[in-house]
Design brief:
heterodimer, A: 229 residues, mainly alpha, 11 helices, 77% helix, globular, B: 341 residues, alpha+beta, 6-stranded mixed sheet
Chain lengths: 229, 341
């Protein structure tokens, strides 16, 4: 149990002394999670809205596919992305292997089904009277879409938070696509994996606590926004 | 000749493979109060959703002011509004719910004052209610706020789907008064679907009767449901709880609905029933008397066993025969006047 306490003390020391390696890992984590979450929300929310809102003939089948993609193994995603970005791969020229944007691509693939599935559920569970009310009050199609999104905001925020939690804590993709390069592509999770392999448990716990702190901060902000709106 | 406000042609609406509304031809004038009456499942809500341009019919066309229109059409979007049966508000404050329609029209001047005024139409104090979240309202208050959100737009057409169902009596009265105020102050055409025929007959210029997705006529038809069984003399009918027998001609099928348009009501102190000269006579008790605004007649509701019948009498006839709720009367109808739906 000593190393748990040592981990806590180490976390405080790393943060208060501005340890450059720690902050580099934090920076990398925040950058990749921000990129991937932004891309996921831009693509995933409209797709989720359409899946939840409209009726079409293959809706059930699409839903099954999306729900299945929720179970995609992260190492499989990492492997496929690695294969695409490696020099011999179709996107090798893009130079994304072992870069933060490359990791973000992999994390986007991981998070997209989460946002699509959960936001579709949030929109599906909206009262059918919402559409009647919005059209009756004179909304056009764009206003209908935005107002429905706003009414489903709590469910959509939950979808975004779930996706954010997933990308922040992901190891496999970051390791395979990023390479865990110090100062370049080492994220908190890959750093934890490395330190644990080195037997530096205290350091691993410290980094884990840092990750928890970030997650706590994000959730606290969202909770404040939810109460306000 | 003035263009009718609504002209419906060859309209059919199907829901999950089942036809729920079928209107060959219907025209509704502007500037009046139009009532739609019918049992549950008759298609009233569907008709209002189509007339409110919230849905598009499966087939056929709805012309508004002479032009075909549908959901999101600019010519109807800011002129026609529907208040659905179930109270529904968005997840925001009362003020933001009521102001929503104005905001999307970018009519943001004096918003708070206009919201206050709209809330006062439905008997709510803006100071007390404006900042309340929608979940903090009772059903009646929510329906009143929903109506205020429509009245603030001063619509040309206001469609009300059972506006007083499932809410308290005070809210119901306030909603009725607010709707009539819109008619008086802004010339809004009201189209109201309701079970409250007494209210409808009292305020409407025209009342339509809707049954199984079809318009029957002026709303004074008596609709009788099966199952029917063969009786004597080639007639069919069904036994009633008080021992009388409801007689009709042979139906197309045992579950067909019978429609009787003209029912004669006569005072009769002794029970009477039977067939005489092609007329069927039954005994019943008056349950309601209501003034029909359009014609000035008195609409009389008579309960025969557990089946309501409706007929009309003049004011003079009601006075001469001393008719009042609770009085036993005889009703008569011609066997040949029974139609099948």
């Amino acid at each position: 149990m000593d190393f748990l306490l040592q981990g806590l003390l180490k976390a405080i020391e790393l943060l208060t002394t501005n340890d450059p390696e720690t902050f580099s890992a934090v920076y990398s984590t925040l950058v990749v999670s921000a990129y991937s979450l932004a891309a996921t929300l831009i693509m995933g929310l409209p797709l989720g809205f359409c899946l939840g809102y409209f009726e079409f003939s293959i809706k059930k089948q699409v839903r099954v596919v999306v729900d299945t993609l929720l179970s995609l193994p992260t190492v499989f995603i990492g492997l496929v992305v690695f294969a695409f970005f490696t020099n011999r791969g179709p996107m090798g020229e893009w130079g994304l292997l072992f870069t933060l944007p490359g990791i973000a691509v992999g994390l986007t693939i991981l998070a997209l089904p989460i946002v699509v599935a959960l936001s579709a559920t949030a929109v599906e569970s909206m009262d059918r009277q919402l559409r009647v009310t919005l059209i009756s009050l004179g909304a056009n199609r764009q206003q209908l879409f935005l107002s429905t999104l706003w009414e489903a905001r709590h469910g959509i925020i939950a979808a975004a938070l779930t996706a954010y939690g997933r990308v922040m804590t992901e190891v496999g993709i970051a390791m395979m696509v990023g390479g865990n390069i110090k100062w370049q592509t080492r994220t908190i999770t890959t750093a934890i994996a490395l330190e644990t392999n080195k037997g530096e448990f205290a350091m691993g716990i410290a980094l884990g606590l840092v990750l928890l702190l970030i997650a706590f901060g994000v959730n606290l902000s969202v909770s404040f926004l939810r109460k306000r709106y | 000749m003035e263009t009718p406000l609504y002209a419906i042609r060859s309209l059919t609406h199907v829901y999950r493979g089942k036809p729920v509304l079928s209107i060959d031809r219907l025209e509704l004038p502007r500037g009046g109060i139009i009532g739609v009456i019918g049992p549950n499942g008759s298609g009233k809500s569907t008709f209002l959703r189509l007339a409110g341009f919230v849905e598009r019919p499966t087939a056929g066309v709805v012309l508004f002011d002479g032009k075909p229109a549908g959901p999101f059409a600019p010519e109807v979007r800011n002129r026609v509004t529907l208040l659905p049966q179930e109270p529904f508000l968005m997840k925001r404050t009362v003020l933001n719910n009521v102001a929503f329609g104005l905001r999307i029209r970018k009519a943001n001047d004096h918003l708070a004052e206009r919201v206050d005024k709209a809330l006062s139409y439905v008997g709510l104090d803006g100071k007390d209610f404006a900042q309340r979240p929608s979940y903090a309202l009772s059903g009646g208050e929510a329906q009143r706020v929903a109506l205020a959100a429509r009245l603030i737009l001063k619509p040309e057409v206001l469609l009300l789907d059972e506006p007083t169902a499932s809410i308290d009596a005070l809210s119901a009265q306030l909603i009725k008064d607010a709707a009539l105020k819109a008619r008086r102050d802004w010339g809004t055409t009201l189209i109201v679907a309701s079970h409250d025929w007494q209210w409808l007959y009292g305020i409407c210029d025209t009342v339509f009767h809707l049954l199984r997705g079809r318009f029957l006529g002026t709303g004074r038809e008596n609709v009788l449901f099966g199952p029917w069984e063969p009786m004597e003399n080639g007639l069919w009918g069904k036994p009633l709880a008080d021992g009388q027998r409801l007689l009709v001609p042979k139906p197309p099928d045992t579950l067909a609905a019978a429609v009787i348009e003209n029912v004669t009501i006569l005072p009769h102190s002794e029970p009477i029933s039977g067939v005489e000269g092609g007329q069927i006579a039954l005994s019943g008790m008056i349950t309601r008397l209501a003034l029909e605004k359009a014609s000035g007649s008195i609409v009389v509701s008579v309960l025969v066993a557990n089946i309501p019948f409706t007929g009309t009498l003049t004011e003079r006839q009601v006075c001469d025969h001393s008719l009042y709720p609770g009085r036993m009367v005889a009703i008569r109808y011609l066997i040949d006047s029974v139609k099948w739906v």
